[in-house]
């Protein structure tokens, strides 16, 4: 299906991110992690199949949202079940508050209810429209490149004048 190809980058970005969180928590073998990632990608593809609207990226965003909030997201739970991880174990390994938005052209996440929204993947949209007002999000890409990147542009605004 053409939509399947269109969603591939966004879905693999989201699945790789959750897998990375599990890997960071430790105690899970690489083979299990690989299986988890593949199962999660498959579950997401199936779940999003009829809910992906590249021309209206925000349409269906709530449906596609992956959420852990004192309840395990069923798609993560399903993939974890495939490698024998219980929901209890997942709650120990993953943040207790995690929201992951998987939308056409953008994948972003927030840890904690008041955390800032960090963009994992962003690609220009045909027509050049931005999906969300930029002021409401913080890109955390810099954090992954600490040491290599020059200070971000709004660095000067954060310095406190004496």
UniProtKB/TrEMBL annotation:
It comes from the Eukaryota. One of its GO terms (cellular component) is nucleus. Residues 94-113 form the Anti-proliferative protein domain. Belongs to the BTG family. Pfam families: BTG. GO terms for biological process: negative regulation of cell population proliferation. This is BTG1 protein. It comes from Chroicocephalus maculipennis (Brown-hooded gull).
């Amino acid at each position: 299906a053409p939509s399947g190809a269109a969603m591939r980058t966004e879905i693999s970005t989201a699945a790789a991110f959750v897998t990375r969180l599990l890997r960071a928590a430790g105690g899970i073998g690489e083979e299990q992690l690989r299986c988890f990632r593949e199962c999660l990608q498959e579950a997401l593809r199936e779940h999003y199949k009829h809910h992906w609207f590249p021309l209206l990226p925000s349409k269906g965003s709530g449906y596609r949202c992956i959420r852990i909030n004192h309840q395990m997201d069923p798609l993560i739970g399903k993939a974890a079940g495939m490698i024998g991880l219980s929901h209890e174990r997942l709650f120990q390994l993953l943040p207790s508050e995690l929201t992951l938005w998987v939308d056409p052209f953008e994948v972003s996440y927030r840890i904690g209810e008041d955390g800032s929204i960090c963009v994992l993947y962003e690609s220009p949209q045909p027509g050049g429209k931005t999906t969300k007002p930029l002021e409401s999000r913080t890109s955390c890409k810099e954090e992954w490149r600490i040491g290599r990147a020059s200070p971000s542009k709004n660095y000067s605004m954060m310095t406190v004048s004496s």
